[in-house]
Amino acid sequence: QVQLVESGGGLVQVGGSLRLSCVASGGTFSTYTMAWFRQAPGKERTFVAAINWDGRAAYYGDSVRGRFTVSRENAEKTMSLQMNSLKPEDTAVYYCAKQNRPFGGSRLGPGHYGTWGQGTQVTVSS
Q1: C-alpha angle with apex 34: 29 to 37, nearest 5 degrees?
Q2: CA neighbours within 13 Å on the CB side: how many for 88?
Q3: Statement: residue 108 has pLDDT above 90
């Protein structure tokens, strides 16, 4: 059973940058597409970015495309999210997630993700 642990969240000013990390322990990591989701207070969890199992394809939500970059290192069982040009609307708890089945595409919806981390808070102050 894979466990996911996020880190790297914090408080940053508008226009600043943060780098989130997700470390997997146990189970298989290298054959599963991974993703980042976020949830702001009082709102539903939304898709941020996904990277396919071999790291060759990534997909981004419209609101973060061009500002965020997702990457992974299978040998270290880690996934990262580099967030630049942060805006107040990026404030949320960020979760990493692993798909239920191996070799899945990066554009699949949240129902295809069955393992989630506990989340890390990102707060962007104006």
Answers
A1: 140
A2: 2
A3: no
For tokens 């992974």, the residue is: 72
List the structure tokens of 123: 């707060």
pLDDT band at 45 (very low <50, low <70, confident <90, very high): very high
> H-helix or E-strand containing 120?
strand 120-125
Is the backbone of residue 3 left (phi > 0), alpha (psi -120 to 50) or beta?
Answer: beta
Nearest to 12 by CA among 90, 69, 67: 90
Which residues face 92 on adjacent strands? Answer: 122
Mean pLDDT of 66-71: 98
Q: Where is pLDDT greater, at 110 or 37?
A: 37
- Contact (CB, 8 A) for 46 and 110: no
User: Whole-angstrom Cα distance, residue 87 to residue 78?
Assistant: 25
CB 21 within 8 A of CB 11: no
Joined tokens for residue 103: 């070799």
> Hey, is 69 helix, strand or coil?
strand
